[in-house]
Design a protein that fits this description.
Length: about 200
Amino acid sequence: MKVFGRLESNEAYSWAWNIASNQTPSALVTTMAAALNDMWSNGAYGLGSQYAPGIRLDSFDIITLDGTFRETAKTGHTLTLLGTSGDNPLSDKTTLVMKKVSTGLRRNQRGFTHLPAPVEGTLTGGLYSTATRTRFTTAMRAVLAAINADGSTLFVHTGATITHGGVAPYTKTVISDVTCSNKPGTQRNRMNKVVGTYA
């Protein structure tokens, strides 16, 4: 699943989760559309309230992959999810980092997802507050629960190369949890196309 949106500068952002599922692509689209709407709009933990209106979530694709993770089919779905906070946004190159956790200890058995950074008020002393971390973790755990509900799984994989320890290419590790870092991350390339002005 690859999710697409726009940042405050109107530059595009995306993030992706690998899902192993016995659902048809169209059924998985329905499942994930509901999960992403809940993630953004839920009254208790929705992330939309943590973003300025210029930050939005526009669409997602469910992409079918073969054994070497090449695309074989793609089904898209449009979303209209806008931030609702009146607070000032953080820089577009700042992110909120989610860690994907498994029972394994190797580097290839975990992963990270960079979400757009929320608004300034979510920071305390330069770090994301406990309340912010709890909200984001709860929201993304709800997405993970939606994936798991029908027997599907979120996973990470080793990619095309053999990793340390002789692990075979494309070895999958099921992700059992997601957590949020209190340290703001960066994606400097998100600002590459933005031209600065001087006054």
